[in-house]
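Budget justification, computational time. The allocation requested in the original proposal was used primarily to generate structure tokens for proteins on the priority list. As evidence of use, we reproduce two of the resulting records. The first is shown immediately below.
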Amino acid sequence: QVQLVESGGGLVQAGGSLRLSCVASTTIFSRYTMGWYRQAPGKQREPVATVTSGDNTNYTDSVKGRFTISRDNAKNTVFLQMNGLRPEDTAVYYCNAQGSIWPVAGSNSWGKGTLVTVSS
């Protein structure tokens, strides 16, 4: 299991920006597909964005063009730059690490989450 620590959440007005960070405690960070998920009150957790070990990215439709996921393998960190925030983006955002390459293939770890609140 990888320990993941998120930061960067907070309260922002609609149209504003936030940058989330997630630091992973592993020496082989590059072998993980990293992702951001979110869970709004009363709703199921949903994927927001992922970035593979090969830097391929994927986004849920509602955030395309507004959010950008990136990773810094030298710092064991994945980022989520969120621009043009909307009240419907309000949620707890979770960092996720899925092992994609031996010897961590098949592993799955979660952070504790960071709260993002967007006021209208």
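The second record produced under the same allocation is shown here.
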Amino acid sequence: QVQLVESGGGLVQAGGSLRLSCAASGSTSSIIATSWSRQAPGKQRELVATISSSGSTNYADSVKGRFTISRDNAKNTVYLQMSSLKPDDTAVYYCNTLNLGSTTSRSWGQGTQVTVSS
């Protein structure tokens, strides 16, 4: 199993920056991709960014050019650098992994709140 702990959320003014961290533990060798998703009140969960085990990345159109996903393999940590934040970026941000073991599974963190004030 993979356990995930997110950190780095908080309150920031529009135009500011935050960096979220997702630290993985457990069966980290089974992780084939890590994603950040977000859910705002009253809205569906939205996939924000993904980084694969090969290092390839994908972003939602709404965050392209503003957010960067990266990882530190030595620390088993994935980061989401968020810049030029907008009030619409306000949400709970969740880290999740796609794991390949005897079966395919997903692991989710507990979420971290990001609030962008106008």
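A brief technical remark on that second record: Residues 11 and 115 are 5 Å apart (CA to CA).
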